[in-house]
């Protein structure tokens, strides 16, 4: 059976090593905070104004300003900047108090975003990809949705000032691969299977 990474590579046309070439350079240092904020603002302006109602409706329960902040904090942290994304969730952890994890396994019904303690553990271990699947569980992340998301992101990258071509290529490869990784995760959900635990994720990487 194909792993999620293999499916992501096949469907996106991006080999895994190209997807993670975002780690070759510190893109946060290169581009700076404002560029990331501008990129996510640009992206979500397009999403919330999308003429395609089916796509716009996926975001109907999210406030645009929150969605923008969630996205740029994630990108900044993932691309070499300060851990803004984790810090905000760690704060939520403290507010909720500590809870016990179920071993090392994350059950789908206990998705990490609905449990900030699990999120914290996963984020510290840098298991971004499986964790993102958990966050996208409520949404229909289909092939069609991935293509539309990527269309808006390509346009946002092209029209945000100060993003050089090399950074754009690296980021777009990461986005393409991740988008189809999420589609593969969505298909698992539909087959009523479990989100991979960290051991499965390690196997995926091999
Ligand atoms: C959040 C949909 C791809 C990263 C969301 C949200 C929706 C969504 C509806 C909730 C908005 C919010 O409240 O923040 C989709 C769809 C995708 C897609 C349909 C198509 C494939 C991606 C990709 C990435 C990504 C490729 C990363 C490269 C995130 C992050 C959040 C988010 C970091 C915020 C999570 C949080 O704050 O809890 N997405 N997404 N998404 N998405 Fe996606």
UniProtKB/TrEMBL annotation:
CDD domains found in the cross-reference section: TrHb2_AtGlb3-like_O
Keywords: Heme, Iron, Metal-binding, Oxygen transport, Transport
Entries under InterPro entries matching the protein: GlbO/GLB3-like, Globin-like_sf, Globin/Proto, Hemoglobin_trunc
Domain of life assignment: Eukaryota
Name of one Pfam family that matches: Bac_globin
Keyword Heme assigned: yes
UniProt GO MF annotations: heme binding; metal ion binding; oxygen binding; oxygen carrier activity
Family note: Belongs to the truncated hemoglobin family. Group II subfamily.
Name under which the protein is recorded: Uncharacterized protein
